Amino acid sequence: MADFIGAVDQGTTSTRFMVFDHDGAEVARHQLEHEQILPRAGWVEHNPLEIWDRTQTVIGSALTSAGLSSSDLAAVGITNQRETAIVWDRRTGRPLHNAIVWQDTRTDSIAKALDQDERGQTIRHKAGLPPATYFSAGKVQWILENVDGVREAAERGDALFGTADTWLVWNLTGGPRGGIHATDVTNASRTMLMDLTTLDWDDELLGFFGIPRRMLPEIHASSDATAYGRTSGDRGSAQVPITGVLGDQQAATVGQVCFEPGEAKNTYGTGNFLLLNTGTELVRSSNGLLTTVAYRFGDADPVYALEGSIAVTGSAVQWLRDQLGIISGASEVERLAAQVVDTGGVYFVPAFSGLFAPYWRSDARGAIVGLSRFNTNAHLARATLEAICYQSRDVVDAMAADSGVTLTTLKVDGGVTANRLCMQLQADILGVPVSKPVVAETTALGAAYAAGLATGFWSGTDELRAKWAEAERWEPEWSDAQRRDGYAGWRKAVERTLDWVDVD
Ligand SMILES: Nc1ncnc2c1ncn2[C@@H]1O[C@H](COP(=O)(O)OP(=O)(O)O)[C@@H](O)[C@H]1O
Ligand SMILES: O=P(O)(O)OC[C@H](O)CO
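Above: inputs. Below: predicted complex with SN-glycerol-3-phosphate.
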């Protein structure tokens, strides 16, 4: 058997390929960014061909850097930015529009209209999601209605829809020459088109968006030995089985070995995504969280999760860098924030395109409140880090209310966790310890685990669980009063951002 498992992590800002050995240790990686196309305020697009090109490059260069070839890979897993919608022509492989990214808000009127009658409740009940611009279905509807010829092509069966996993699987398995059109249950659970109980596309939901079933990929388990086929073996490379496919936040849940109900992880990247494993029971949220599929391994029952999705966390740090210019790199925010002992009364709510969980308010906009002449850049930097943590606190509180689970530790990962001050603030603001694993690339690791489980490379979840090891831990230091007062101020600041714009 080949000694390694590969994993493609196709994220919002970059695509990386990583190779892991049997111990789950990293052997190789290469990563490339792709362009963020911003045609108008609120619109965010990617070029699917650029993403495919980047994917091929990072696979080749990561293998070469480690002196490996594709024949050294027992299997490959794919994990991806979720919800982002791609529609392409099956005959040519050409995209019929740029990918419409999860952050894009152009479909606000579609989402609003659905929520004005009982369709909103039907979507909540069947798909586990509130009608919102975040999810794929409205984006597909927009392409069908706004791009010439796409609806006709979709009805003829020539236009295919997929999230980034589907696009990559189709291209890796041959594209127009017989590529496999498939997705997994976790990605399908983010479209607003899948019924969480049947794990199949739902005709009533498809009808709400006018989406022909023929456009849609087949839905399979997240870990499956055959459904996703093999890489096409172009340019003399080996045909490697693709045996793991799952959305990036679900992959991080697997990489953090959250296999038991009550276990949770929080990933801090562009946004934050906190997932709580609720087992084979489907828990419906009354507090603004999403119900989603965490993973399905082979024929086993699906495992569900409650998710709190936060749109802007690490990207608020980018805003300090790119728009305000008060830091020159993301890592500088820690030094600047550490120049002061608190935020000097400042709160920053980065509701740049509204607020996701648990508020789901597209009429909110960002605000910096509590300013006095005393305040400096350092206070704003610290308030940015606190905003990341307070938004996570909102979600943790909603989760406790929905599930009755009180976290005893929060497992963390993602780019922002490099910021030790931010992680200390997170422990302080939550009042629970925060724990970071040795392998911080939990997303790629989770995709590799899903792929390796399907082929017998790893024997089962117990073996994977034994590989998890803590690298760093932060204990709460704030007093209860400090925590209570700080959070009360945050809630007041959030109130100030609501009902700020009229959204059409
Ligand atoms: N030291 C740091 N302090 C705070 N934020 C950071 C730091 N390093 C990186 N970030 C933020 O982390 C994000 C990138 O994390 P990553 O996990 O790669 O995100 P994604 O997968 O969403 O692209 C960026 O938004 C960046 O601003
Ligand atoms: O690509 P990331 O890491 O920013 O994750 C994006 C999420 O999957 C969006 O739901």
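The domain at 257-503 is CATH 3.30.420.40 (Nucleotidyltransferase; domain 5).
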